[in-house]
Design brief:
Oligomer: single chain
Helix content: 25-40%
Strand content: 15-25%
Largest sheet: 5 strands, mixed
Radius of gyration: 20 Å
Strand order of the largest sheet: 8-7-9-6-10
Distance between the termini: 49 Å
Order of helices and strands: HHEHEHEHEEEEHHEHEHEEEHHHEH
Mean pLDDT: 91
Length: 358
């Protein structure tokens, strides 16, 4: 009988920063590269001989369970153990494990500011040989599995759609001052300012200072900003498409605002160096990238969307449909250098907002 572990990562905002810094120091042990076959059929056989795979990501088990069940049905004899772990927490623990030469996780999650440190911990895997499309392979060792686009959300009981801001400058109008808006203090919602060439760091700092003068309600995380909108404590706030769709499915009076542009916010999976079950890890990750798995992930709002604005076929993903219905334009992170730049940009954005902890 398989046992699935489920726990939540616990980090304060300061702890998260320290975790990422610790992860960035790299690995102490020489773990080498996993001995993986060069064909899918051989990978399946090796994965079955390993018999298990430990997957950790920053999503609730309930959202991942349907695709786990599908994988175990497709590959009987390979048991999946899933642990919900915040990405900074995971990066920090994995860094320590690799330094000690005792890695316990097989499939890890990289997103946002953990992408750069995770790049040093990822093993070399021939993803294309296992059926992963080239456009879904990032920095050679990461596989793009789902998106969590950043958006603005509003309470439909408190705000009329005709009164909604459509541009970032619209949000600086007096009607949105005095605590009417909630925003996550790490400034993740401002990512697009560093990705869109038409926006830029200089304009971002100017905008952020004006926004701070509006007296917004800052929250430690985007989840908490979303919660304030759902409860009606604020009229509008920062969120993720996934959170909005989950809230709407439960009957919450929330909707995505047409405030644009934003970022695609891609999330990746990878096989860490020293993973105890590398073949099973590569098999699970490639499976999660497949069309059949993406369809199941889409039902819990966790599938991919095109990295750049593309509404030519929005019906394949509820997340994409929501983006397109709101008329949003979005921008991707196209290279590791983008994530390095974002790490520096976020510090400047936080200082401009007055939310930095330095």
């Amino acid at each position: 009988m398989m046992t699935r572990r489920y726990r939540s990562g616990r980090l304060t905002a300061l702890g998260a920063v320290l975790a990422v810094v610790g992860a960035a120091t790299g690995c102490g042990a020489d773990l080498g590269t996993a001995d993986l076959p060069d064909s899918m059929s051989a990978l399946v056989e090796q994965a079955k001989s390993e018999g298990e795979v430990d997957w950790q990501a920053a999503k609730p088990l309930a959202q991942m369970q349907p695709v786990i069940d599908l994988f175990e049905k497709e590959y009987p004899g390979i048991d999946v153990t899933y642990t919900e772990t915040k990405a900074p927490d995971q990066a920090s623990r994995l860094n320590v494990q690799q330094a000690a030469g005792r890695v316990s996780v097989d499939v890890a999650n990289a997103v946002g500011q953990t992408v750069v440190p995770s790049a040093k911990m990822a093993d070399d895997v021939p993803w294309s040989a296992y059926g992963v499309a080239a456009e879904n392979i990032f920095n050679e060792d990461f596989v793009y599995i789902w998106a969590a686009p950043k958006v603005w959300v509003y309470n439909t009981d408190k705000v009329k759609s005709a009164d909604l801001p459509k541009t970032w400058d619209d949000l600086l109008q007096p009607s949105w001052a005095g605590g009417a808006v909630a925003a996550d203090s790490p400034a993740q919602f401002m990512t697009v300012w560093d990705l869109d060439p038409a926006m830029g760091e200089g304009r971002a700092v100017t905008w952020a200072k004006k926004f701070a003068e509006q007296g917004p309600h800052y929250t430690p995380t985007v989840n908490e900003a979303e919660a304030l909108v759902e409860s009606g404590q604020v009229d509008m706030g920062t969120s993720l498409v996934n959170l909005v769709l989950q809230a709407k499915a439960k009957g919450a009076p929330v909707e995505i605002a047409p405030l644009s542009p934003t970022s695609a916010s891609e999330a990746y999976l990878y096989v860490p160096k020293g993973a105890p079950h590398p073949a099973a890890a590569a098999l699970l990750t490639s499976f999660l990238s497949s069309d059949k798995a993406q369809k199941v992930l889409g039902e819990t709002f966790n599938s991919r969307i095109p990295s750049s604005t593309d509404c030519s076929d929005p019906d394949g993903s509820p997340t994409l449909r929501a983006m397109c219905d709101a008329g949003l334009k979005w921008f991707p992170s196209t290279a590791l250098s983008d994530y390095k730049s974002l790490s520096q940009f976020s510090v400047k954005a936080q200082k401009a907002l007055g939310t930095d902890i330095s």
